[in-house]
Specification:
By secondary structure, the chain is an alpha/beta fold. It is built from eleven helices and eleven strands.
C-alpha cells in the first residue's frame, strides 16, 4: 500500500468514526448520559455500558475517537457529560480551561503498549535498546496513531525514542487519527507492523502481539475520567460511580485493562 493510500484510508476511517460520534451525541435522548471516551476503550466500555443498562435501566450514549479530537470537541461546546481520556495531557488541557469538574477527576485505568503484526505473519520481536524495526518492516510502514496529538502515538514515539529506534522508522510510519484506525491497518494487512495498546490487540483476532514495550520506555499509560463542567444530568454522576464498581472492574480486567485505585490525577 502506498503512503498516499494509507493516508487516504486513515483520513476516511477517521472521518467515519468522528461522523458517527457527533451525531450519536445529538441523538441522545433526555434520559441518556453522553460520554466521550478514547477509541481504545470501545470494546470494554461497550460491555460496561451494556451491563449498567441491564442493571439500572439507564443508558449511556458513548462517542469514541482520539482523546485529542474529543477534548477539542468538548472545548467547542459538544454536549458531553463525562470524558475518559487515554492520557493525562488531554484531561489537563480541559482542566486548565475549566471544562471539567476537578473534584470528580480520578485515574481509572492503565494499559500496556505493544507491537502487533498480522496473525498469519507474526514473528516475535525482542523489544530492547537497538530494536531494528526498519528491517522487519521490509517495504512496508509502521502503523501507529498520530504521534503529535493522539496518546497512543505519543507513547509509541516516546518508547521508540528511548530505545533508539525512532530515527530509523520516523519516515516510514503510517499515522492514523486514532489507535483503532492504526489497529485496522495491521488487521487488514495494509501495514506489516503496528504499535497499539495491549487491549486493542486483544480485541482484534486478525492480529498478534509480537513484542511488549518495557514500562520504563514511555510515560505511564493512564486513563483519567471526569465529569465535564456542564454535566448536570444525574445519570452522569451515577455512571461515573459505576465505572469504579466491582462489576465494571471485572469487565475492564477481563478486557486486559489494569484497574487503578481511582487516585487523584
Amino acid at each position: 500500500m502506498t503512503l498516499a493510500r494509507i493516508r487516504l484510508f486513515g483520513l476516511a476511517l477517521a472521518a467515519a468514526l468522528l461522523a458517527g460520534a457527533a451525531p450519536q451525541a445529538t441523538r441522545a435522548q433526555s434520559g441518556d448520559v453522553v460520554v466521550f471516551a478514547a477509541a481504545s476503550l470501545k470494546t470494554a466500555l461497550d460491555a460496561v455500558n451494556a451491563q449498567w443498562q441491564k442493571e439500572t435501566g439507564r443508558r449511556a450514549v458513548v462517542s469514541y475517537a482520539a482523546s485529542s479530537a474529543l477534548a477539542k470537541q468538548i472545548e467547542q461546546g459538544a454536549p458531553a457529560q463525562l470524558f475518559i481520556s487515554a492520557d493525562l495531557d488531554w484531561m489537563h488541557y480541559l482542566a486548565q480551561k475549566s471544562l471539567i469538574k476537578p473534584e470528580t477527576r480520578s485515574n481509572l485505568l492503565g494499559n500496556r503498549l505493544v507491537i502487533i503484526a498480522p496473525k498469519d505473519k507474526a514473528q516475535p520481536l525482542e523489544v530492547k535498546r537497538g530494536l531494528d524495526l526498519a528491517a522487519r518492516l521490509g517495504s512496508g510502514r509502521l502503523a501507529l496513531a498520530n504521534v503529535d496529538a493522539v496518546p497512543a502515538g505519543k507513547y509509541a514515539k516516546a518508547a521508540l525514542t528511548k530505545l533508539g529506534a525512532w530515527d530509523g522508522v520516523a519516515a516510514r510510519t503510517a499515522q492514523a487519527e486514532n489507535v483503532r484506525a492504526a489497529l485496522l491497518l495491521v488487521a487488514r494487512g495494509e501495514a506489516p507492523l503496528g504499535i497499539v495498546y495491549q487491549t486493542d490487540a486483544a480485541a482484534e483476532p486478525s492480529v498478534a502481539i509480537v513484542g511488549v514495550f518495557p514500562e520504563d520506555t514511555h510515560p505511564a499509560i493512564v486513563y483519567p475520567v471526569a465529569l465535564t463542567a456542564t454535566a448536570t444530568h444525574p445519570g452522569a454522576a451515577a455512571f461515573l460511580a459505576y465505572l469504579t464498581s466491582a462489576g465494571a472492574k471485572f469487565v475492564f480486567e477481563a478486557h486486559g485493562f489494569a484497574v487503578l485505585s481511582s487516585g487523584r490525577s
